[in-house]
TrEMBL record:
Residue intervals of the Metallo-beta-lactamase domain: 44-243
Protein name as catalogued: Metallo-beta-lactamase domain-containing protein
UniProt cross-references to Gene3D superfamilies, sorted A to Z: Ribonuclease Z/Hydroxyacylglutathione hydrolase-like
Pfam families per record: Lactamase_B
Domain of life: Bacteria
SUPFAM superfamilies: Metallo-hydrolase/oxidoreductase
Native source organism of the sequence: Candidatus Falkowbacteria bacterium RIFOXYA2_FULL_47_19
Amino acid sequence: MSGKLYKIALTSGIAAVLAVLFGFWLFAAEAGVYLEVDFLDVGQGDSTLIKTPAGQNILLDGGPDNAVIKRLSENLPWWDRTIDLMILTHPHDDHVNGFNDILKRYDVKKIIYTGVMHDSPGYLNWLEFARDDKVPLLIIDRPQKVRLGGDCYIEFLYPRESVLGETVDNLNNSSIVFRLVYANTVFLFMGDAETEVEKELLDKDVDLSADILKTGHHGSDTSSSEEFLAAVSPETAVIQVGADNDFGHPSRRILKRLERIGTTVYRTDLHGTIRFLSDGGKIKKD
């Protein structure tokens, strides 16, 4: 190679390295500013990726199958194979099944769940995989806060007592409910909790106010009572639901109820994966 060509190649190589480093720096800088919440389009089920300002990856529910793997690959860089916290709201198949593939392909650091009893193969396999991988299992059995660094934290609101090892009549009402707070912005995640849970939280005078509501039970009319929605007063609601599903989700009644209070509604069956960014002062849809 001639000296001139060598200099050109060397200069190009340095420029490429600097571009990569700049891109990495820019990504890291943005990661330190924003809370990102990605409501993943996994069909008829729930799965949400939360990327905190401190750089943690939190995966809330895993959807009904391995569709979550594709969605994670679209929303995480190829080199990031870590899930710092996995949260299972409740062990119905449309929330837990995808977790089995996640445990096989990602390094999961901790798991939060309720420990409620359920005999579905997907749930039992997930528990077995987690124990084989020696992933710490943490139980939510009372209201509590988990700090995520700086002004960002999770405030668990439900369950308000232990269901560890218990069989319950309605698994939806064993769902973990929590607020994700970043400074002055709030997301409220309801799992599949129904109106009985909403009423209990209202009766306990729990602060339910939120900018973004992940509606309970895929927009079913078993959730999202008028009193509950008035307490939340969300600017935006997200409904995670599959196209042309067999359950009639979301309910037209709930859609009308949200419309009447001026809430903007996004649906994964219509809009695909839905991403929000918060700088702690305001939330924008990306």
